[in-house]
Design a protein that fits this description.
Shape: elongated
Helix content: 40-55%
Number of strands: 4
Number of helices: 7
Largest sheet: 4 strands, mixed
Distance between the termini: 93 Å
Order of helices and strands: HHHHEHEEHEH
Strand content: 5-15%
Radius of gyration: 28 Å
Strand order of the largest sheet: 1-2-3-4
Length: 211
């Protein structure tokens, strides 16, 4: 057997090995990786992690037991034909950064990252227009922590600047009464904007232990 023939056989064997390896890898790829590649997306570290193991699981409850009890009380008393009650809404979905801040700038991202981590316990929405009417925060003992006090103060300011009334308090029944009075005032003068009533900040209540 000549040297040329031997080299040709080696090339054929190596090529066959590489083809089999590629085919085996294709077969072993997860459906997620295959789907990403078919879409022209190059899988990165996160995609490989998600394809190789189960890293997500469903949360049992959207709200704590205390928040759920409070929410059920609102559902009983608030006029469902007039208002929607939306639980656990991300703050970044009900406010937007002023056009005075350059979009996608370092400052813009810093402000966005701040509110994107926060959620309001309940957001009240006008059923007819889907406009945000007010946000609700049921405070608890965790608001005594220094990190939460900072968050509460900044959240109050975010809502004040965005002109969204923030109804908050520690006592469930008192907060529920506060919400019902607020909605009744909206019904009595539905054409008036919150700013006509003196500004959104008049509805804010400090968290327990706040200063």
């Amino acid at each position: 057997m000549s040297m040329t023939t031997i080299l040709i056989l080696i090339v054929i064997i190596v090529a066959a090995f590489l083809i089999m390896k590629v085919l085996r890898q294709e077969q072993e790829q997860s459906p997620l990786i295959k789907l990403l590649k078919e879409a022209g997306v190059r899988p990165g570290e996160t995609e490989q992690l998600m394809s190789g193991s189960t890293v997500w699981r469903r949360r049992g409850q959207l709200m704590t037991d205390r928040e759920t009890h409070f929410f059920h009380g609102l559902l009983r008393d608030v006029d469902a034909g007039r208002w929607y009650l939306c639980p656990q809404v991300r703050v970044a979905d009900i406010v937007q950064i002023s056009s005075a801040v350059r979009p996608r700038s370092k400052t813009w991202w810093k402000l966005f990252n701040l509110v994107s981590r926060w959620h309001c316990d309940v957001v009240i929405v006008d059923r007819a227009t889907l406009n945000v009417v007010a946000a609700v925060e049921l405070d608890d003992r965790s608001h005594l922590e220094s990190s939460r006090r900072r968050r509460d103060i900044l959240l109050n300011e975010v809502m004040r600047q965005a002109d969204i009334p923030l109804l908050r308090g520690y006592d469930r029944e008192e907060l529920q009464e506060q919400i019902l009075r607020f909605l009744a005032s909206r019904d009595n003068d539905s054409a008036a904007e919150p700013s006509d009533k003196g500004g959104a900040d008049i509805y804010c209540r400090p968290a327990v232990g706040g200063s």
